[in-house]
Design a protein that fits this description.
heterodimer, A: about 280 residues, alpha+beta, three-stranded mixed β-sheet, B: about 160 residues, mainly alpha, about 0% strand, globular
Chain lengths: ~280, ~160
């Protein structure tokens, strides 16, 4: 064997000196391949998705609780009694409706009302009834609100009630047996002692009118019986007073009222009444 | 390719690939890094498991990565580098062996990258020409040619 051959041959006895073993290198490769996918990205992804998802759920839940609204409405010729989440009672007169947020009730006791309703409020945080023309705030009492068209009347049966206009700086504090009337068109209002009967009799299915215009009386009949009454407008200002059990049928009520003024009426078709002088 | 097959490929060819990258680059560090990259590529490429085909593929990936690296760094000068080997049987390091090792390390400087790679695959790893040709996807003739050139240079 020549010197040259020996030289070439001696490569056999050499090996590379990498400083990193095959196993250590494999560990690094593992880290960069399937371990990376299954643990690192997975946990990170799971966490951030989790946080994002719970935030969305939280916001969504809050919005839902805040905005979810229950509407209760009584049609013409219908009375409805509805219990609010805290046990407060609402009696809805005909052609009236309320809106409230049941899941937000503990944060804010607020009811939107259009029409007429009688409230018996459980004691607790302030309780507000919002209508187009005015707001009524109480702590715990019973009262009647009449909020139809531009009229706004609150009758306080027990406790204390605060009534405020939504349009002008008119505000009254009334106690049991007092009535507050707000007239936004005239920018005025009054507060006076009144008999409970006229304002709360509807709850017991009674009609109670004291010196009430015939127009108002007919309007009430229209709502209570879901009928239409056609009459000469010159009759509108006639004053009527009576207190009677609400008859089953509109005919009987019409009869009672028309008799008083010596008027005649006929039902031209179902639900259509025509009133005329004899 | 599942985890077990992937590991199997590494056990079979990991060493050779690292050696191959070292023969070409003359840098242990680069060989270590690129070997990892080669296997990461193999895993991510989602190739079918086939021992023989995977072997050629690995060499191909390794060659490609090495060229990429050089294109990026343009540092051809430093891989003509300093080969440092260790003796396989280092328990009885006699002076003679040390002497030959030095000689070997120095001798490689005169070879081109291609000659060196083929030469070391043959002499150090003990691969026959046919195997080298398969790995590098060149003809056996080309391997012979590179070997004879290398041997001639070393003789001088």
């Amino acid at each position: 064997m020549t010197e040259y051959d020996k030289n070439i041959d001696s490569f056999k006895n050499l090996e590379n000196d990498f400083g990193t073993s095959d196993d250590a290198l494999w560990a690094k490769i593992e880290e960069k391949t399937y371990l990376k996918k299954e643990t690192k990205t997975f946990t990170l992804g799971w966490k951030s998705y989790g946080i994002a998802a719970s935030l969305i759920i939280l916001v969504g839940m809050t919005l839902f609780l805040r905005l979810y609204t229950i509407e209760v409405s009584a049609h013409k010729g219908q009375h409805i009694s509805h219990e609010l989440p805290d046990g407060s009672l609402v009696q809805l007169n005909a052609a009236s409706s309320i809106n409230y947020k049941p899941y937000w009730w503990n944060m804010e006791r607020a009811v939107e009302l259009s029409g007429e309703a009688f409230f018996e409020v459980e004691k607790g945080k302030s309780f507000t009834v919002i209508s187009e023309e005015g707001n009524t705030t109480v702590l715990g009492t019973s009262f009647n609100i009449f909020a139809r068209e531009s009229a706004y009347q609150v009758y306080c049966k027990t406790g204390k009630v605060e009534v405020a206009s939504n349009k002008h700086d008119i505000q009254y504090k009334i106690t049991a047996g007092e009535l507050a009337i707000i007239d936004n068109t005239a920018k005025s209002g009054i507060k006076k002692k009144m008999d409970a009967r006229d304002y709360t009799s509807w709850i017991d299915n009674k009609f109670s009118f004291t010196d009430t215009s015939l127009a108002r009386v007919f309007q009430e009949l229209e709502l209570q019986y879901n009928i239409n009454i056609d009459y000469n407008k010159e009759l509108s200002d006639l004053k009527y007073g009576a207190y009677f059990e609400r008859p089953q049928h509109a005919d009987l009520a019409m009869n009672l009222i028309c008799m008083q003024f010596n008027l005649n009426f006929e039902e031209t078709e179902t639900g259509q009444y025509k009133v005329y002088r004899k | 390719m599942n985890k077990k097959e992937f590991k199997d490929i590494y056990d079979k060819y990991g060493k050779s690939i690292r050696n191959y990258l070292y023969y070409r680059s003359g840098s242990e560090e680069l060989a270590n890094d690129l070997t990892q990259d080669v296997f990461v590529k193999l895993w991510e490429g989602n190739y079918k498991y086939h021992s023989e085909k995977n072997k050629a593929l690995l060499y191909k990936i390794a060659g490609g990565l090495f060229l990429d690296y050089h294109r990026k760094t343009k540092s051809e000068a430093d891989y003509i580098a300093h080969f440092k080997f260790k003796l396989k049987d280092s328990s009885s390091p006699d002076e003679n062996a040390k002497h030959y090792r030095k000689k070997c390390e120095l001798a490689l400087k005169s070879l081109t990258e291609k000659e060196r790679t083929v030469f070391l695959m043959n002499k150090m790893e003990g691969l026959i020409y046919k195997e080298i040709a398969e790995c590098l996807e060149i003809s056996v003739k080309a391997v012979e040619k590179r070997m004879s050139k290398a041997l001639k240079k070393l003789e001088a």
